[in-house]
Design goal:
heterodimer, A: alpha/beta, 14 helices, globular, B: alpha/beta, two-stranded antiparallel ribbon, fatty acid metabolism (chain A), ATP-binding (chain A), transferase (chain A), EC 2.1.3.15 (chain A)
Chain lengths: 318, 290
């Protein structure tokens, strides 16, 4: 049973009412099919309306939904022959980032992504998808390996952020993120990054210096969490809803700010409602994007990545 | 305010106060200046002559970008770039434009970084100096663009790029555009690096968040001034997450040096000489930069 999100309440309530009515009708042996039919068509309309008019804060709820498909769930549905590869060769294996090699439409690729847990136990093991430096260093190791063997790189971004901890600072969280940005800039293979859930700040960007950046319709990408922004702006984290709006963090916002290249539609109500269908849609988008990038030479890939990021920003020349 | 309060987001305090150290209060137009660390009373003129370093405890007071240029480059050699770039308000944040205007007047800068070409003991270099007196030295679109253009200039001239960082991180009011400046500056530095050119990052107080997690940490040489606060996440955030008391020297330059994150710490009084030596060792010998 998935968690109820506030914006879905009218839909869920109406659905419950219909079930209730059906039960009553059966128990009392009265014919209420006319009423039920009316309510069902009302429900359809309401659903359409609610999911078409989601506010930024509603999308934050969907992006954070416990049942939302994770990197590994997409990997198993989209890629063949996936072999997970572990460790940064220096300190340890950080389970909050997974990576490996696989086959995609017959082409060898490297896949890397943040990994949240679904249960409390798994979340503890995966540190809630918040990497330490060794996670980013593992990612970079796999990217360099991909470059050596001329494999495209596909990154899934899904993190609240890099882990803010003592050990993370001691081992150079800043340097690990910075190094990834710097090295990704020079990789001579196609890089596609897809924000599948939350794209939280530098910890997300460290898998994001790509030729093409895609976002799922309900994913978010931001410099600070809505709660963090709220506590700075209004000195109160409970204004997160307003902050989610003000900070422009939705896929549509990022498209309008000319940061991302495409939005991948989600099944009605969010990716968690139908993982299989969502994976099919995702696969189609990645296929098309990769087909285009496969045509570019190594020099073009590096040059286009440079130009892409060079052009991000808004200022006036006076 | 103690040093540990500097990088924390407080609900009670206005963000404007975050980087204001006692230094600034300690530097009015007055004749004497009190060191916030050892409480020693200095004659202001004397301490300015000493590059704003306390003669007793070596506390480094914060410098403006202009003061930094004056004590680092050859006299009169600096020509600034891109002073014409102006900040906009892409997210329509209330009062953002006004705040920028106030800091422009206060600092005489167009944004939180001053960039340009100059000479260091006769060697041509491109320099960027961040100024924490301008919106905490935070990085928005203009700061990112100015640094990127400065790096591109260094690549074009085939000279070293040297940056003095001082920043609270990415600027919140420009949202994800600020975040992307981390990537933008990094791609420019990568290109500079692939040309075999020298990049020196000198971290000064404070260098945190998105600036620490991008260009500040990827110098061929990562240098810092003594006691500077350098780190990714804020101290209070970390204390809340790990639920333990952090050591007093946590996230200081000395702490980073001890954990292998820095090449060296140079006192401000020796900074010009030491950096000039590093540049000289690259200009002469194996690979020629000029």
């Amino acid at each position: 049973m998935s968690k109820l999100m506030a914006f879905e309440e009218p839909v869920v309530k109406l659905r419950e009412k219909i079930v209730e009515l059906k039960t009553i009708a059966t128990e009392a042996e009265v014919d209420m099919s006319g009423e039920i039919e009316k309510l069902e068509s009302r429900l359809q309309e309401l659903e359409k309306n609610v999911y078409a008019n989601m506010e930024p804060w509603d999308r934050v709820q969907v992006a954070r939904h416990a049942e939302r498909p994770t990197t590994l769930e997409y990997i198993e549905r989209i890629f063949d022959d996936f072999i997970e590869l572990h460790g940064d060769r220096t300190f340890k294996d950080d389970a909050s980032i997974v990576g490996g090699i696989a086959s995609f439409n017959g082409q060898a690729i490297t896949i890397i992504g943040h990994q949240r847990g679904k249960t409390t136990k798994e979340n503890i093991r995966r540190n809630f998808g918040m990497p330490h430096p060794e996670g980013y260093r593992k990612a970079l190791r796999l990217m360099k390996q991909a470059e050596k063997f001329n494999r495209p790189i596909i990154c899934f971004i899904d993190t609240k952020g890099a882990y803010p901890g003592k050990a993370a600072e001691e081992r150079g969280q800043s340097e690990a993120i910075a190094r990834n940005l710097f090295e990704m800039a020079g990789l001579r293979v196609p890089i596609i990054s897809v924000v599948i859930g939350e794209g939280g700040s530098g910890g997300a960007l460290a898998l994001g210096v790509a030729n093409q950046i895609l976002m799922l319709e309900n994913a978010t990408y931001s410099v600070i969490s809505p709660e963090g922004a709220a506590s700075i702006l209004w000195k109160d984290a409970s204004y997160a809803k307003q902050a989610a709006e003000a900070m422009k963090i939705t896929a549509l916002d990022l498209k309008q700010l000319e940061i991302i290249d495409g939005i991948i539609p989600e099944v009605a109500g969010g990716a968690h409602k139908d993982k299989e269908q969502q994976a099919i849609i995702m696969k189609e988008y990645i296929t098309n994007t990769l087909n285009d990038l496969n045509k570019e030479s190594a020099e073009q890939l590096v040059e286009n990545r440079y130009t892409k990021f060079k052009n991000i920003g808004q200022y006036i020349e006076q | 305010m103690s040093i540990r309060d500097l990088f924390t987001i407080s609900r009670k305090k206005n963000t404007d106060n975050i980087t204001k150290r006692e230094d600034e209060k300690a530097f009015p137009e007055g004749i004497v200046t009190k060191c916030p660390k050892c409480k020693m009373i200095h004659v202001t003129k004397e301490i300015e002559k000493n590059l704003k370093v306390c003669t007793k405890c070596q506390h480094h007071f914060s410098l403006t970008a202009e003061e930094r240029i004056a004590c680092f480059l050859d006299k009169g050699s600096f020509v600034s770039m891109d002073d014409h770039l102006q900040t906009t308000n892409p997210l329509n944040f209330p009062a953002y434009v006004e705040k920028i205007e106030i800091d422009k007047k206060k600092t005489g800068l167009n944004e939180a970084v001053l960039t340009g070409v100059g000479a260091l003991k006769g060697m041509q270099v491109v320099v960027a100096v961040m100024d924490s007196h301008f919106r905490m030295g935070s990085m928005g679109s203009v700061v990112g663009e100015k640094i990127t253009r400065a790096v591109e200039k260094a690549t074009e001239l085939r000279v070293p790029f040297i940056i003095f960082t001082a920043s609270g991180g990415a600027r919140m009011q420009e949202g994800v555009l600020s975040l992307m400046q981390m990537a933008k500056t990094s791609v420019a530095l990568k290109r500079h690096s692939e040309e075999g050119l020298l990049y020196i990052s000198i971290m000064t107080h404070p260098t945190t968040g998105g600036v620490s997690a991008s260009f500040a940490s990827i110098g061929d040489y990562n240098i810092a001034e003594p006691q500077s606060l350098i780190g990714f996440a804020g101290r209070r955030v970390i204390e809340q997450t790990v639920r333990e008391k952090l050591p007093d020297d946590f996230q200081t330059a000395e702490f980073l040096l001890d954990h292998g994150q820095l090449d060296a710490i140079f006192n401000r009084l020796e900074m010009r000489d030491k950096i000039a030596t590093i540049v000289k060792l690259h200009v002469q010998g194996g690979v020629s930069h000029v």
